[in-house]
Specification:
Largest sheet: none
Helix content: over 70%
Radius of gyration: 22 Å
Order of helices and strands: HHHHHHHHHHHHHHH
Shape: globular
Number of strands: 0
Strand content: under 5%
């Protein structure tokens, strides 16, 4: 059989988590696609661009407003376990960090609302959107903190249910506001969705044995805060390096080749992100808390091996399927104008396989709080991606972008084997 009882239990749990994550992710994808379509129909391309601008702004701001500690909360919740006395210290300290950070960030958004509106949305007319966001961001932060705790407790069914409710509510609420108010409605929906969702989450957790008021009343604990600070550094590094590297690369393609080519690259990146969302969601929901609670190298090695046996065949199958159906994929998601992206599929999909292979090991850096190594590799490989992209575009044109992506993640995989081997080798 080659697999003992614990191994089979692992497989069933991972498969079950993957299926639940797939359901939640599929509903989220449908919701996002439908909302994007509604924006395109009722607001037009300019409105779609402005919505994208605001989403980029809100993603960065949300990371800072949360204190960038949510991965740490998930890791230590899983590590401490449900009955550990440190749980209440963790929850209390994390909630104080998040609450204080969200108040500071929210106040900043309100104060600079006119400037932010002019810079991101090209008009001061939308400053009221930023004011609303400033006042409601604390609700977003509380909601995400609770979801991080649920993830650490490995209560996947509840986590998935909340995400499904959130996606369905967002679809209905956002679409109605877009139809009624156009661009204003889309922006209002973006800054108020989770305010309502939080009420639903609090109701669903009203009788929870662990997530209860008394576990959030301990005094601020400095040692616990210092442990979470390492995760804040990692989260902020990712929040800055990834979008900045993409911005540099996109601008270089636009100025060196054409902005149409920059759009083609964005399209192939969008395809990768969409179909890999199922896997990446499973990694964050299952893998991070699972790896965090393991202290024995042999057991950790077994978990990693089983992960590769289960996850990688799925990734390879999806990649092959996308490649075979690339023309259908272009037709389904885009228009005939995007036919030139056919040349990007092969090495982009090969790069996706390398990427997930590397991420299975890279999650060890988060699970084991390898802060310095994570920050160094994150900065180095985003910088390397920029350099490879510029050189490849100069040498091969647009198709060079897919070469750069595949090579960067192939090297990243090799580096991950070496930097994490102490955690899983005897």
């Amino acid at each position: 059989s080659g697999c003992n009882r614990s191994c089979k239990s692992f497989q069933m749990t991972l498969v079950k988590t993957s299926i639940l994550s797939f359901i939640a992710t599929a509903i989220k994808m449908i919701s996002v696609l439908a909302i994007t379509k509604a924006v395109a129909i009722y607001v037009g391309p300019v409105g779609l661009a402005l919505v994208g601008q605001f989403q980029n702004f809100s993603q960065l701001v949300m990371t800072v407003a949360q204190g960038a500690i949510n991965s740490g909360v998930t890791k230590y919740t899983a590590e401490y376990g449900k009955d550990d006395k440190r749980i209440s210290i963790l929850f209390s300290t994390a909630s104080k960090i998040s609450f204080f950070s969200s108040l500071v960030v929210g106040a900043g958004i309100v104060i600079f609302s006119q400037y932010a509106s002019l810079y991101f949305l090209k008009s001061e007319d939308y400053s009221y959107i930023f004011v609303i966001f400033g006042f409601t961001i604390v609700l977003f932060v509380i909601n995400n903190l609770l979801l991080s705790i649920l993830n650490g407790l490995k209560e996947i069914k509840t986590w998935v249910m909340i995400n499904i409710i959130q996606s369905i509510y967002s679809l209905i609420f956002t679409t109605l506001l877009i139809v009624w108010l156009g661009l204003d409605g889309a922006l209002i929906a973006l800054v108020t969705n989770q305010s309502v969702i939080l009420l639903i989450v609090l109701w669903m957790l009203r009788n929870h044995p662990i997530i209860k008021a008394e576990n959030f009343k301990e005094k601020f604990n400095t040692p616990e805060a210092k442990k979470l600070a390492g995760f804040a550094a990692m989260a902020i590094t990712s929040a800055l390096t990834v979008p900045v590297s993409h911005l540099i690369v996109r601008n270089y393609i636009g100025e060196t080749l054409s902005w149409e080519d920059a759009g083609y690259w964005q399209a192939i990146w969008y395809i990768s992100a969409m179909y890999l969302m199922v896997v990446t969601t499973t990694l964050s929901v299952y893998y991070l808390p699972k790896l965090s609670e393991i202290t024995d190298n042999a057991e950790l090695r077994k978990e990693l091996w089983q992960g590769y046996k289960i996850i990688m065949p799925i990734v390879i199958a999806m990649s092959v399927g996308i490649f075979v159906l690339k023309d259908f994929t272009i037709w389904l998601l885009f228009t005939e104008e995007f036919i030139p992206i056919r040349q990007l599929f092969l090495w982009q999909l090969v790069g996706d396989v390398f990427k997930i292979s590397a991420w299975l090991l890279a999650y060890l850096m988060i699970a084991k709080a390898m802060t310095k190594v994570f920050i160094i590799t994150e900065i180095a490989f985003n910088f390397n991606f920029v350099l490879l992209s510029i050189w490849s575009v100069d040498q091969f044109g647009l198709v060079g972008m897919s070469y750069a992506f595949a090579v960067n993640y192939a090297v990243y995989l090799v580096v991950m084997v070496f930097v994490t081997k102490k955690a899983w080798l005897d």
